Amino acid sequence: MDSNAPRSSSAPSLINWPPQGEFVSLVAILMAMNALSIDIVLPALGLIGESLDQSDGNAIQLIITIYIFSFGCGQLVLGPVSDRFGRRPLLLIALGLFAVANGLAASASDFSHLLAARCAQGLTAAALRVSALAIVRDRYQGRQMAKTMSLVMMVFMAVPLMAPLLGQILIGLGPWPLIFEASAVLSGFVFLWVALRLPESLPPARRRRISLSTLIDGYRLIISHRSAWGYMLASGFVFGVLFSFITASNQILLEVYEIGNKFPLAFAGVASGLAVSNFFNSRLVEAYGMRALSHTALILFLGVNCLHAVLAFVGYQPFWLFTVMTALPFVMLGFLGPNFTALALDPLGKVAGLATSVQGFISTGIAGLFGGWVAHLYNGTPEPYAYGVAILSAGAVAMVTWTERGQLRAFRLVKEPPTPPESPSA
């Protein structure tokens, strides 16, 4: 399939898409604004707690957890809105409200007001992710969608690599509200980029009116499709490992290993493997297929996290080993996230917005709860983290095994032609 061709005959043929590189960059920054809102705050958590008279480290984690949960929940509502009114209007309104929410966070005078602002940030950022994924699904399908998502994720991963360092620079230049003020300025820039360069990808003929019966039919279609539903649930477990590290990293790296100002470097070192593997997935997925790559990565993902749990049980976790055992699963994530997303959304083109909302709720909202649970187990040691991510990895393997009826394609890396897309009503 031509990378610039519409995804199907029902897609508009006259859409004036920006060049592929610009398209990938714009979708990536729309999705990365969520990651930025999470990771840029990490170096400032202690300062925010002191400023707002909050000394309980586990309570301070709510700055991250409540954002992730509201981000996930918001997608359930906003997906149908995107299917009804189109992608551009929702994007532009959300970018404006995202800037307002950042302003409210910057001006928060107590901890509860900050949490309310973070909740508003999460809800508005949800619209950015729902619309960005739906636009990709509007334009591509199958392996081409997985390849595009890998390229998006490769650009996207530059944000979590750099965000903690950027956050540390900003709190070195001024008080912690400067972090949220900078995010508000960024949202204004992206607003102009979308307004000037991104066309509407959902023509009126393909829009779905919002009604209870329409939503019920859409949810029934998603839940009854074994492959789509199964890979959505598997994504919840897989991304739960990601959010476990994001939420727990501040306490583990600063309190247990006492790395101080080296935190952004350690965080980037762990996350860098994800960017590299997304690049390789974009190059390999068209030849070897989404299932072969993701199933192989999934078994390795489980093996490494179980080994980490064993090392934690015997009490051997020096800093270098903790870093290695945390970074290796992130390498596998680059082959899991884009492929699981494509496998879940590919059969659901008729309800792309609703499907991306459900997938987003599970892969961020549910995963955020998993991550918050693992992080909340923190007891002054890294052991609970190791046990928690091993449990989540086992859940992901169980879910994919159920989805594929026990027929995993792990380690079957043989070049094969693409298979036709599954029927949306399967």
From TrEMBL:
GO terms for cellular component: plasma membrane. Keywords: Cell inner membrane, Cell membrane, Membrane, Transmembrane, Transmembrane helix, Transport. One of its GO terms (biological process) is xenobiotic detoxification by transmembrane export across the plasma membrane. The keyword rRNA-binding does not apply. It is found in: Cell inner membrane; Cell membrane. The chain crosses the membrane at residues 23-47, 59-78, 90-109, 115-136, 148-171, 177-198, 228-248, 263-280, 292-313, 319-345, 357-378, 384-402. Pfam families: MFS_1 (PF07690). It is a multi-pass membrane protein. Gene3D superfamilies: Multidrug resistance protein D. CDD domains: MFS_MdfA_MDR_like. GO terms for molecular function: xenobiotic transmembrane transporter activity. The keyword Zinc does not apply. PROSITE patterns: MFS (PS50850), SUGAR_TRANSPORT_1 (PS00216). Residues 23-407 form the Major facilitator superfamily (MFS) profile domain. NCBIfam families: efflux_Bcr_CflA. Belongs to the major facilitator superfamily. Bcr/CmlA family. This is Bcr/CflA family efflux transporter. It comes from Parvularcula bermudensis (strain ATCC BAA-594 / HTCC2503 / KCTC 12087).
